[in-house]
Amino acid sequence: MRRRYLLILLLIAAVFPLSAQTTGYYHSATATAFEYLGISHFADEIPARSSFAGSTSLGLFGYQGNRWDGSLELQIQSVSRSLPYGLYRSRGFTSIGFGLRSSCMLNDSFSLYGQLGTEVNFYSQIKEAFASFSLQVGGQLLILENPTYQLFLAFPLSIHLRKEITAIQVGVGLRYHLFPYHQGGSQ
Amino acid sequence: MRRIIPLLFSIVLILSSCELFYDEPVAGDVYAILVGLDYQNNTSQDNLQGTLNDADELHIVLDSLAEQTDSDYFGYRFRQEGLSYTSEVNYLIGTTTVNAYPSITNIEKAIEALVGATDESDLILFSYSGHGGEDGSIALAKTSSSDGEYFYDVQNLLDHFKKVNGRKLIIFDTCYSGLSLPVNPGSTNTVLGSSIDDWYAKYWENSSYELPDIYVLTASADTESYEVDLDSSKSVEHMHGAFTAAILEALGWGYPHPDVEDLPMPPAARGSTLTVDALYAYSKNYIEGLPDISLHWNLFSLSDYIQHPLVSGGAMDMVLFRF
Which of A66, A129, A169, B55 could connect to B36 by a Cys-Cys bridge, CB 3.0–4.6 Å? Predict the structure, then answer.
């Protein structure tokens, strides 16, 4: 069994050799799992209700320089209804929106990023929609890299600004960069 | 950074534990005003065959659900049946005696009587099965053959219910009932027609959302609603409003009827709770499964028979029963 895991690790290491420098235009895909903590602006039974959220974003167009990068992201998020408590539950919904994301590398493997976005949201069970804005900051750790791919482990902290609720989201995710027009090379 | 991340995680962890540290509010008694009219004493309106069944059977199933959840049940059926312009039944609601004939005066009196009888933890249900006007109003019972003022503005009804303590669910099984859905300050209905501009405009609107204590469930949006015969053998008619038939099945009162002493857990319940949204979702699926009245397409046209239930919007769903 251990031998099998070792083999998988070696295979991954071969596909993503570390310490390759990558710059240029890129596309990206991000998958993140969040805890979604909705703090209501109205008098609710409790100050905050907890839900879970899963988010996927696709970087339609991005550019990465030596230290900075920026991209336009299409993001889709699904938020569950809140955990059972009392005589009310907050409704679950699905969001779709756009965001602008930028990151700054602090060293060879760690970068900080920020993202501003806006979304339209559709409640899961009922036929109602609403608009929202979001702000996300976080750190991302480069875990695997080769001249055309990068894989990051991301730790986002996000604020979801809805009319009646402000939500704090804390999560963990994976972000993948693909450089189809690679300009850099291995160090 | 090493300090900030654990600090943020700690704050979120503390806040996300609210559900564990606060005492849960308990559900109180269940009150129901159930209105059904057959319009046999009103020559201006077509007779309806399922509306009295709607009121009668909701009464049975709500009584049983209240018993299952250890709540006391106070149910009041307001039936207009046959040619009479009054009812032989009188109810004592709180300290007020109200005749069970569903005229505007009696319905308003019944709601006013609840004002002193209920408290914040109680659940109050109001169901109406009858005709509806194209402006979203409801056709209550005429007090005489010459009475022409029997259409009632739903906003008046909701205003009366605002004075009643407790969580309130108002069910309208009637045509055009979606037009009486209260406008929500947080979200916009997509069935009645809205666009992305409306959603963003609402975000910036100077209106505030309060935790709602009135939810409205409607049988249709801006179209007609229909009755169905639940007896597939057609040997004996068992008519209901399609929407109330859906609600009844969602609550565990399908057809053929189960033993009232041994009602199953409501099929619409999720986990140990039954919420307004769960009731809505079940009803919507039920209606979509009715080939005569649901949306269906063919190559050249969209069916005319479209009944689309609606429910109040906003961020919160309300628990009706906890098992």
Answer: B55
Angle A118-A122-A123 from CA coordinates, rounded to 5°: 130
**Cα–Cα dist B280/B151, whole Å:** 26
CA distance A84 to B34: 29
What's the gap in Å between the CA of A98 and the closest CA on chain B? 14
Nearest by CB to A164, from B9, B209, B311: name it.
B209
**Taking CB atoms and an 8 Å limit, are B186 and A164 in contact across chains?**
yes
CB-CB: which of A81, A87, A155 is closest to B167? A87
pLDDT for B298 = 57
Q: What is the pLDDT of residues A121-136, one digit of tens each?
A: 999 999 999 999 999 9
Report pTM: 0.88
pLDDT digits over B291-316, tens only?
777 655 555 555 555 889 999 999 99
* Domain boundaries along the sequence of chain B: 28-297+308-322
CATH class of B28-297+308-322: alpha beta
CA distance A114 to A127: 32
Tell me the three state secondary structure of residue B21: helix
In chain A, the N- to C-terminal Cα span, in Å, equals 35
Chain A to chain B, count of Cβ pairs less than 8 Å apart?
Answer: 139
Cα B239–chain centre separation: 19
ipTM passes above 0.95 = no
